[in-house]
Amino acid sequence: MNPAQPAGRLNGGPAGARRRRAAAGISGLLLATTLAGCGGGADGEPGPEHSVFFGVLAGGQDPLGAEPSAAGPLDFQVTTGAADSPWAGVLAAAERANAPGTFTSFAGAEFAPGPHHPARTLIFRGPQLPESLPAAPVAGDPEPLWRWMDELRDQGLESLAVPEPMPAPDPAGAAPITDAATSSEASAPMGASPTADAAGPALDAAAAERGLRNEPLWQIAGALDAARAAWLQGVVLESTQGINPFQVGIVAARGSGLTGVWAEENTRAAVYDALRRRETFATSGPRITLRLTAGAVPMGGDLLPEGGNPRFVARASSDPRGAPLARLQIIKGWEAQGEASERRYDIACGDGQTPDPVAGRCPDPAGGRADDCAAMAAGAAELSATWQDPDFQAGAEAYYALVAIERPSCTRSAAAAREPGDGPDAGQRALPPGRAWSSPIWYHGSIR
Predict the structure, then answer these.
(1) Inter-CA distances, 282 with 197, 250, 256, 309, 325, Å
(2) With contact defined as beta carbons under 8 Å apart, do 339 and 192 qualify?
């Protein structure tokens, strides 16, 4: 570790607390679905009392404009105004919409972007709220906003900010890979990314911790590329400089999907605390539910090198009104001996087959391509797997994130539907599959 970083601390948090941390007990399911068979006990996995709640960062309607699914309406939202909006009106609107135990409405604010900084959504935990908002940051620079948030935190007013999506910091290091033959994110190795030499100048540890303290989450818009690039660069920096400024969880960008959180109950305090600890996931729109744990460590958490190769438990359920699940994948990014790499591993297949242990991918559907509507596999309503990293290196820094991928849906064109005598698959084409992505679990092999 960097000697400038306080001993016994891990990105601003006590190492001991992170070592022991597990998700708190949850009082019960309210509006959304739970994962069937998510029983507790083994390896400290969270028990069946855990519930997932779906919401959006601002507004209050499904971002895709669809009617509520069988899983019920949204569970939470952030009621916002611009930084120069009447703050009293925002507070009143948030309070009117809030119904503890049924629907959570946070008070928040939106700050416009600058030339080199994204827009930000500010979320207050409550019940204490500021009497006014600061002026919009000049040119979008977040430092004045972070200082104001820290000052409020010292007074007992807790908040976090969520930046909108930004371009990937190193597109060459985390190029999107799409397997056109399977209409899914590929499982083959993604190749080498920036080496430790690309880590750049020494970081300001205090500034990095301040950023993570105030912005523990990033928004993603329909793909994981920017987050992957940042996560990978983060493990390089953790290994070379002892601090990871990109140890962030994910939520869905407004208008591009849904955010899921695992929380004690549907209240401001519980949902906010789940956001704060990064126990979150994002979907491309469907209400897929997923969870990743490693022993007692939930997604968003830190895993220290105790006990050898960690054992991950992954579970996902499909949207009750959507397509079944085609596969579960683990995305791993790691740094070892000066080189950073990424790889995807299929860990569960929706057609009941077993992933190839060498290739790390599910077999193609019998009879043709995965995007061939006539040969499409049935898929599964639920998938689960227990997985250990076949390429585990005890001393490496790494992140592990879970992806659930739906079976592609098929649609028939209106023109083809008018043709008499066509077979049942005539004119059909596969649509891109829905996905859900978890916040990572970070493995800190360089901390001893």
Answers:
(1) 32, 7, 10, 27, 16
(2) yes
Helices 205-214/143-154 angle, 10° precision: 70
Tokens of 448: 């001893």
CB under 8 Å, gap of 24 or more: what pairs does 410-417 form? 410/373, 410/376
Q: φ and ψ at 387, to 5 degrees?
A: -140, 140
Strand partners, 286: none
Residue 332, number of CB atoms within 10 A of its CB? 22
* 135 class by beta-carbon count within 10 Å (0-12 exposed, 13-18 middle, 19+ buried): exposed
296 touches 154 (CB < 8 A):
no
Select from 176, 184, 187, 222 the least CA-distant residue to 371: 184
* Cβ contact 289:34 at 8 Å: yes
Beta strands in 16-172 (DSSP E): 51-55, 76-82, 104-111, 120-124, 159-163
* Partners of 185 in beta bridges: 178
Three-state DSSP state, 386: strand
pTM: 0.81
- Alpha-helix runs per DSSP H in 4-133: 15-20, 87-97
Q: What are the CA-CA distances from residue 35 to residues 92, 312, 369 (Å)?
A: 35, 16, 30
Cα separation, 445 vs 366, in Å, equals 41
Selection from 442, 62, 441, 438 nearest residue 224 by Cα: 438
Q: For tokens 């959180």, what's the residue?
A: 261
Q: Which residues contact 204 (CB under 8 A, 6 or more apart)?
A: none
Strand partners, 428: 412
Q: How many Å apart are CA 313 and CA 42, to the nearest integer?
A: 10
Nearest alpha carbon to residue 34 among 346, 338, 382, 282:
382
Q: pLDDT of 36-64, one tens digit each?
A: 323 334 444 544 456 899 998 875 433 33
- 47-61, 93-107, 433-447 — which is least confidently predicted? 47-61
pLDDT at 372: 57
Handedness of CA 237, 239, 244, 250 (dihedral sign): positive
Distance from C-alpha of 130 to C-alpha of 215, rounded to nearest angstrom: 18
